[in-house]
Amino acid sequence: MLWIALVDRTGSGLWAAVSVLYFTYVTGLSVAQVGTLAAVSGAIGIAGAPLGGRIADRLPLTRVLISLQILRALASLALLTTDNYALLLAFSAAGSFGDRAANVLTKLYATRVSGPDRVRYQAVTRTVANAGWALGGLTAAAALTIGTTTAYQWLLTGDALSFVAAALLTARCAEPPSPARTIATSKDPAPTARPTNPWRDRGYLAYVATETVLFLDDAVFKVGLPLWIAHSDQAPHGLAPLLMVLNNLMVVALQVPLARFGATTAAARSLLLPLSAAFALGGVAMALSATGGAFTATLFLTTSAVAFTVAEMLHATVSWELSVALAPGTAQGAYLGVHGLAQSVQRSIGPLAVTAAIATGPLGWTAFGATIAVTCVFQHHLVRDRLSRTALSVPPVTVSEH
Hints:
- By secondary structure, the protein is mainly α.
- The protein is 77% helix and 2% strand.
- It is built from 17 helices and two strands.
- α5 packs antiparallel against α8 and α6 (85-114) packs across α15.
- The relative contact order is 0.15.
């Protein structure tokens, strides 16, 4: 599965770096059409997380994953066959749906096979995925020096082939044991009744709502920092890509070491407090970057990038562990699918949130960081009672499907 993550993200890195350019220069779409295509396909992709998770509770996980990888491959290849806007929109939406569903199911697979080591597995997976993104991005950058239609088409083909390779690798993976298949004995205490429909579980839905806010660090690096630097009179404009590289290198180097601080559910919950401080520091540093000359701006922007990257890594550990710990084993896929909505929805509201902070100026960035920090503290209290009830329950015996 780690090889699958590397291959998948390398292919995605190829396409993510050139998708806007492909639709602009190869298919001839206008700026408004490209924006609409991205927004609509992203909105349709939101459904992939909950639907994929629910299906995985009913069908063999590896078969569903293979189907999704094939869907992503076909959607990517289909983009090469037309410049019709309606078809491009349909194919992009199919690919987005498959991408969001595959992300949730990959997490579900890791949860089922790694057991108590799931936090460390998550850290290693993120490290490998970031390495894949970097490799794909560098390859795309090299290809863009050619700048021909053929170069764009080969990058898109490479993305499609990465999904084919991921499907073939997934076919070699054993089906993991499913927590939905359990054996209860007469000596086991009756488990506390917990809802198996996440849409009726108000506590979990409230947790997912807070997660949407905590995922805003993604929008900071994709939209916030580049735009803030571009509109700054002091910050060097070449600083934006350097801070993106810094973010990537920090994740590759530090995600695994930091994961040990959230190796248990209780430890993961405790990390929400330093996570709150990291978000607050990131917002304040962004605000202070507007108070001086080029050196001051560079110093505080770098500090902010480091703080938001630390927040990204801590939240990745906390989110992985709590989203699983708060979900009943009999409906793990459905719950993780609903949790996947947090990141999907953030992709829509995140750019709006950071642009609002930019428009408001230093005070906006301070409020941005403070809002996420307060949400961390709220989530820390929100999950306390539920985790206490979970800790009192006796875990069931899981039966392998082989």
